[in-house]
Amino acid sequence: MSVLPLAAWAGSGRKALYGRGFSEHGLSANLSRMARISIKVGLKALPDSNAFLRALWAELRREFGRLAWAYMPHREGIRNVDSFGEVQLGGNYILSVFVLYKTRGSIEEIIFSDENSHMLRKSDVGQDIFSRINNSVQVALISFQNMSQFIMQSTLSIQSDREFWAYEGMVCALCPIGPGRARLRIRISAFDNIDAKNEYMVRAVGICDQLTTWTNIPVTLSEETDSDDVIDAAPIENADLQPNTAWAEADWIDGVPLIENRIAITREQFSWIDAYAGHVVDYSHPIARATRHFAEALRLRSVGQFPETSQTLLVSALEVISEEASDRKTCPQCGQLVHKISKRVHKMSDRYLGSFAADRIKTFYEHRSKFLHAGVLPAYYPAAFGSMPQLDASDPSGCVLPRSSSADINLVEFTGFIWRAECSSWWAASRLDQGR
To answer: Residue 141, Cβ neighbours under 10 Å: how many?
Structure first.
């Protein structure tokens, strides 16, 4: 390992790396006052790259006692550089952090450069700090495939006075702890407690969205509680409940799925949650992504505000679901999907709910497009107004509509039904529940 002025590295045949505020003309004058360390990594796959970075940040926390970010992500594609911004190591040392890549998501080298800290320009201090950084990188390159096990949990808030049934899988458990409350517990593979918390939050928020979508009841994360790094999960807390009591009516469309006055989900739905918690199903999956639109729409509706926004989110959820449901026929000339998105949504809606519901959803889709792209409100008069009815040449009814008429009547039920059916179809086709 060597610590060099960055100008020497820039002149060694590598592409110039521009730091914050640098221009091409002012580059050399700034680089001469900087030091840096460039360390070979050589990871080609995105999952390995991110696991290595998580391991490295944990190792730097152990080495320096504190790791704080001024996170300013930026890509300079022409130079194959991704910048994370600035990191503060311990209490005194601030460095800019970059990665060099050959293909996006890979890491050829990781670079720590001194732009602001006068202390690191002293060769003895800089040599010591960069030596410790290099050692941390080498440890992370070995350890990133060997994570520790943590059990993280938090309390969920349920917008209902009912309780869930108890569910327990290989990776996570859902435990009722009182009316309108539940505890979500997830087994997390991570490198330290901070890393485990971050990974837990990513998964827990998505699981809240999924529970909302499956039950038609807004579920949110209410408080986070730490746990020790343990390997074996604790058992279901309420011994009187039969764990994993499953809802069996696949064709329900409105209301709430209840068994003996407790909220229930199907076996496949909890298997999906368990797979999602264990990263068998990634949050980039279209069905997982659609839950955010649906769940946010229900949360808005629950406070009785922003009907146009909730309607937009519900229709957008159908767009995302249709991406997975479509047969993905493409044009042989241009490679684009043959059917427009609106036709794709209508076709999917007709398949699951029939022509009447599909035509109703088409109307919602048209309202959403006008609102989203042109700012046109489906209705703008208050829900109750004293004047006589009036005409509106642009409305299909020919009349002015009160704002209550634009409410998403049945759209929640339609969207939720299609989402649950599509999720069930995908799960059955994937056969991921075998052996779980």
So the answer is: 18
Amino acid 115 reads E
- Domains belonging to the chain, first-starting first, are 4-143 (3.30.310), 149-279 (no CATH), 294-430 (no CATH)
Q: pTM for this one?
A: 0.76
Please report the beta strands in 180-329, taking only residues with DSSP state E, as ranges in sequence order: 181-190, 219-225, 258-259, 262-263
Per residue in 297-338, pLDDT tens? Answer: 888 888 776 777 888 888 888 888 887 655 556 555 555 555
Q: For helices 193-215 and 411-430, what crossing angle results, to 10°?
A: 120
Whether the Cβ atoms of residue 185 and residue 153 lie closer than 8 Å to each other:
yes
User: CA 379 to CA 79: how far, in whole Å?
Assistant: 50
Residues facing 5 on adjacent strands? 35
**Cα–Cα distance for residue pair 226/237, rounded to 1 Å:** 17
Residues 35, 118: contact at Cβ < 8 Å?
A: no
Instruction: Mention every residue, 6+ apart, whose C-beta is less than 8 A from residue 109.
Output: 38, 39, 40, 41, 99, 100
Closest CA relative to residue 211, chosen from 179, 249, 248, 256: 256
Write out pLDDT tens, residues 329-353. Answer: 655 555 555 557 778 888 888 888 8
Asked if residues 79 and 55 have their Cβ atoms less than 8 Å apart, the reply is no
| Residues with Cβ within 8 Å of residue 408, at least 6 apart in sequence | 297, 301, 307, 310, 311, 314, 364
Query: What digits encode the pLDDT tens for the residues 220-265?
Result: 998 655 554 443 444 445 545 566 788 877 777 888 899 899 999 9
